[in-house]
What does this fold into?
Amino acid sequence: MSEATDDSGRASDVRFRIVDVTRRLLAWAPYNDVGIRLVAREAGVSPSLVMKYFGSKENLVIQATDFSDEFTELLAGPVDGLARRIVESLAVIPEAPEGTDPLGALLFIAGSRGLPVELRHALLDQFVSRLAGLLEGPDAQARAEVACAILVGGSVMRRTLQAPVLGALEAASLADRIAPLVQAQLDPPHDDGSRTAQRNGE
It folds into this structure.
């Protein structure tokens, strides 16, 4: 199949489809189980075309696990109220295959069997380091990691483990329960070391 005529699509469209299929597969299947042949079959192209475009499975995975656009959108706006915006945004993402929660996918892929250590670290940095760069005050990296842990834990409970209460909550109600815990890490500490949330009687 030629690059220009594969599935009657342009080369850029075919590349996008391959990357999209790979991302969806990695969000639900271990790294070692997602091979070039599986990706090609699900994308409706030949394995040789996948290799032509990406050269190797590792290069394909690097492009498929680039969530920078999703995280840029997720972290847009002021830090004040950011936790609630994040929780509500993630809560309304459809279940796969229609949608992929980027934090949930990041956790699953980062912990996937066989994933190279360098790629695992790069995945986590996409969200955590970006979030840390937005925070004022000391220990920004540690606070960003704790915030990410809370968000990812909520995502796992809601989508992966399908916890009955969390899974049934509407976005606003879910944010009422989780966002204050996350926002407490995003707000800068007071001089006495307490968080903004603690000043409000917590």
